[in-house]
Predict the structure.
Amino acid sequence: MLPYNFDYYKPQSIKEAIELYQLLKLQEKKPMYYGGGTEILTLGRLNFIYTDAIIDLKGIPECNAFGFQDQELIIGSTLSLRAIEENKLFPLLADTSKEVADYTSRNKITIGGNICGQIFYRESVLPFLLSDSTVIIAGPKGTRKEFINEVFHKELRLDEGEFLVQIVTEKEYLKAKHISVKKRQQWKTGYPLLTVASLKKEGFIRFAFSGVCLYPFRSIQMENKLNDKSLSFKDRILSSFEFLPTPVLNDIEGSNEYRLFVLENTLSYILSYIGGEEHE
């Protein structure tokens, strides 16, 4: 239970949700959009989040979409990680999402909640960063479609009253060779030490990271170094570290030195698995 009371609303359309948010703001309330609610419950109990009005997006058809439209896969923001894992329409996303929390939690955690949440790992965004996906965002100024790599900088940049409706990915990325590796220092379902997702397209290997720094990221500079076939795997990896955002995390899950050690070994494994063609 939360240590405070709140009003609950479940709009049936994008327009209704936005109008409701604006009305509640005019009433000097602190509305919050809601998908699965796991983070609100977790952080609310610790008094890290406060809201007196919850707007549940699960009644909006567009937020529940899941399937192909022409040559694109449409994923609604309120789809649970478990549903994505079971359907496997986006294999890299399924592989990455199935390592988030535990089985029971993934029945509640939504893809939008994981991407937009305050807990900094947000691993589910990695496959979308690698696939040049687009996001559909709705708010008081209307609905907009943006490349995720242009609006996700440390977090998904949403204006006041906006919410994520859908993520759209071109079908060609779904069949690309890929791998997702999560490393934990502690128990199987504990918070990760780090996660690295990788996808190979037209001979070039892309990489996205979570848990290395205080936010998920994809670095083109690191990718260029990691794809330099004139160098050995070790030299590629060590030279790519020059472009890591700083600081590297140093917390209860692992020191920054240990993270770099694990990251080096993880990247070496990924390059070998996905076909990095090591220099002789």
